[in-house]
Structures are given as C-alpha cells and as structure tokens.
Amino acid sequence: MRWSYEEMPAALDGLLAFPITPFDGAGALNARALHSHTELLLSYGVSGLFPGCGTGEMGALSPDEYATIISTSVAVAEGAVPVLAGVGFGASLAAEMVQMAEAAGADGALVFPPYLQSPGSDEYLDYYCSLAAKTPLALVIYQRDAAIFTADTVARLAEVPNIVGIKDGTGRVELLQQQVTAVDRSRFGFINGVPTAELLAPALRPYGITAYSSALLNVVPELASEFFHALRTGDTERVDELLRQVVHPFVRLRDREPGYAVSLIKAGARLRGADTGTVRAPLIEPNERDLADLRTWLAGLRLSDVLIPCDRSALGAIAAQGA
Ligand SMILES: O=C([O-])C(=O)C[C@H](O)[C@@H](O)C(=O)[O-]
Fold it and tell me: Which SUPFAM superfamilies does the annotation name (predicted)?
C-alpha cells in the first residue's frame, strides 16, 4: 500500500525515524543490518521512516545503494508507516532520485536544498513546484542552509497538492511562527528537523509543531520514544530529566566537531551492538577521547548493553499513562 499525499500531514505528525546507513567491514552497504535496524526503529512506534537522508549519509551513497536502502525500508515498513527518501543536489538529479524512490516503493521524498545554489523566493518556488509536477509522491521541503522561505513562499508551496509540509532545520521560532499561521495545517504539516531535534521540541510545541525527526532514536530508542511520549502527555518533569540526562550531554559532545551529529549517532549505535560499520568520508569517526566520552554518557543511562526491539505492550502502557 502506498500512502497518498492527502494522508501524509496527519500520518507524519509523530516521532520520525532517520535511520543510519550501515556499512560492512569493507565499507560496502550492509542491507541485512539496515533491515534489522529498521525493524528495531519501527518497534518503537515511529510515524515515518526517512531512509537515505542526512543521518543516512545521503551524499555518500551510490545510485544502486540508494535504491537498495529505499526498497529495504519499504519492505520492512510493509505499509504500516510512510517511507520518505531523501532527494536533492539539483533539479535533474532530484527528479531522477524521486523517480528511483517511487520505483523502489517509497511514499514520498524529503527534498534537500539545491546544492551550491541560493536563488530568490520565486526561483525556489519554481524549483520545488517543477519537481512536484514530475511525481505523484508526497514531497516535504527541507528548510535549511540558504533555503529559508518567507511565509508567503510557504503559503504558495502549500497550494501544490503533493507538497505536504516543511521540515525545518533552522529552529528559527520567529520565522516558523509566521509560516505556520500562513497555511491550512490540516493539509500542510511542519516537522521540527534541527540537529538533535529533541533539544527544540518542547519550545516548538506551543506553535503546534509536534512532529520531529530523531537521530537519537538510532542510539537510545528506549529514551527517545519515552521523551516523545512524555512531551505529548505534558509530563514536563520527565521531559526536563531526559533533557538533562540524555539530550544536553549528547549535544555538548556533538558540538565538538562538525559532522558529529551523524558520526556520533553511528558510533553510539555501534557501541550498543548494532552492526553499523563506520561513516564514509568526508565525515570523520569520533576520536578516542570523544568515543570514550560517548561510552561514558551511554553507561550513565543504564540501558541494556545491546539494542533490543521494543516490547509493544510496554509502549502502549507508557502512552496510556498520559491519555
Ligand atoms: O536529514 C537528517 O537525517 C536529519 O536532519 C534528521 C535528524 O534526525 C535530526 O533531526 C537530528 O539529528 O535529530
């Protein structure tokens, strides 16, 4: 089953998984490990899968690997949640990628800004509208870097039926506040997509931005999903506790080197027994000191030594507590 673009804003209003891309010892794609890691992420009750995006090292993938990653995610999801693939680089490559994503069974795409170009509002609008005209898939536009939109541009993007939302990587509240009030939220959604999105999630809730992407879910799915439920149910005490124990120390580690938002996530999943391999260049692996600090952070969280799929009944109980 494919998710239609009409269903997408409501379907994606939740905790969104951005899987790492595992590589084997020789540095090749490890589709078997991706399969089991995606099963693990799904077991934690996510609302959507975004394979081959930033956390999935989109820029380092070959076209064949890209297609395999998407078809693996689609096979694991079995239609239970939408699968949206990262697309980008430029007009023709983004169009080819969206067609590959469609052929691999994806329900939609997350459109990264055009590489090394920073046009004006009208040109951005043309860029996204012409991509949308080439596919029946739902498109979420990634607002980040130079691709920052006026409220008017967002309102015009929202007029395109299969452009279903914005994933915001800026965290600029004053900008988002204007954008959310410019559209019909029942058919156009907003996703908090800043690096380590948990950091900003409490601040964006008052604006009705309740969906967010979680890279931390790859490393500490137990606590990332608990954080999401605590936030949804208004358990501010637990939210603050998890911010202090999990999110803030991770962000301090992440900020030590450019690229750590991805490589520490991969290393963290590896420390918990996932068969992830290392990151591809130009990303760098954490140095020994930072790896030791990552290990200490993880040990302090007192989780099981290895990643284990969620017991769905436990997840139901957490949700019910706050219902
Ligand atoms: O493209 C990506 O992988 C992202 O930007 C999503 C991440 O999950 C980001 O929100 C984060 O680091 O939590």
Answer: Aldolase
